[in-house]
């Protein structure tokens, strides 16, 4: 029997309305997109400003209580930053004991996007992107437990390059741990929206001989890649296999996805 695919429940916040055929609520799809994003944007309200704050941050999905949980299981989002950063202070002030457990913490919205191609159509109005985007809604709380904090920092570091935490100087110093704060976001809902395929021209443009004879149409695939490693001036170590394997896999997977998505 196959594994049941878990999905986030549809709510007024996360339901995709325009082009809902492109929507996905599957936990695995959403969590993979978050983990594959070098930067995630975190939005929250602050008491001293009429404008929502949006910060680019680094984060990874994980579960301290169930560290062996699959990427398609319910997970939390861990975010780290400097201890005195505004978001951590706002989160601490927003978390109170009288809050309901499922709504305890600072309400946040997290988003991330990957662009896989530029779609160039006959009309400017039919231009588009191939993309993968994701939005999560949840409640952020400050991680106070030292062991959970170390777990979160390991998950985040290994999200940059696999096994990177284990191959860095260990253990962290007291100053490093004290100067770094970690937020855990309990996810309430989320959704992804994915566009793949080629140009979708209108029928009247396809029948417009003048336009077809003068306008180039097609797909420009886009994929990020990691360049040749540049060691520090004081480096004395050969590039470890986890780094070289990561570069090879990252470049291969991104290129293959963008090219395959363009053909759909």
Considering the chains and any ligands shown, give keywords for the structure.
264 residues; nine-stranded antiparallel beta sheet; single chain; 7 helices; alpha+beta
Q: What is the oligomer described by this structure?
A: single chain
Structural class: alpha+beta
* CATH topology tier name of the domain at 20-114 and 125-195: Pnp Oxidase, Chain A
Query: Helix content range of the residues, please?
Result: 25-40%
Major sheet = 9 strands, antiparallel
Q: Which regions have little confidence, pLDDT < 50, spanning 5+ residues?
A: none
Distance between the termini: 29 Å
Q: Find the count of extended strands (DSSP E, 2+ residues).
A: 9
Mean pLDDT: 95
Which CATH top level class of the domain at 20-114 and 125-195 fits?
Mainly Beta
Task: Count helical runs.
Answer: 7
Q: What global shape is seen?
A: globular
- Let me know the CATH homologous superfamily of the domain at 20-114 and 125-195: Electron Transport, Fmn-binding Protein, Chain A
Which range does the strand content fall in?
Answer: 25-35%
Rg of Cα set: 22 Å
Query: In CATH terms, what is the architecture of the domain at 20-114 and 125-195?
Result: Roll
Order of helices and strands: EHEEEEHEEHHEHHEH
Describe this protein's structure.
It is a single chain. With 264 residues, the chain is of the alpha+beta class. The chain has a domain at 20-114 and 125-195: Roll (Pnp Oxidase, Chain A). The chain has helices spanning 27-35, 86-94, 146-160, 174-179, 203-206, 209-212, 241-263; strands spanning 23-24, 40-44, 53-57, 59-62, 76-82, 106-120, 128-142, 180-195, 218-221. Strands 1, 2, 3, 4, 5, 6, 7, 8 and 9 form a 9-stranded antiparallel sheet that branches. The radius of gyration is 22 Å and the shape is globular. The mean pLDDT is 95. This is Flavin-nucleotide-binding protein. It comes from Hypocrea atroviridis (strain ATCC 20476 / IMI 206040) (Trichoderma atroviride).
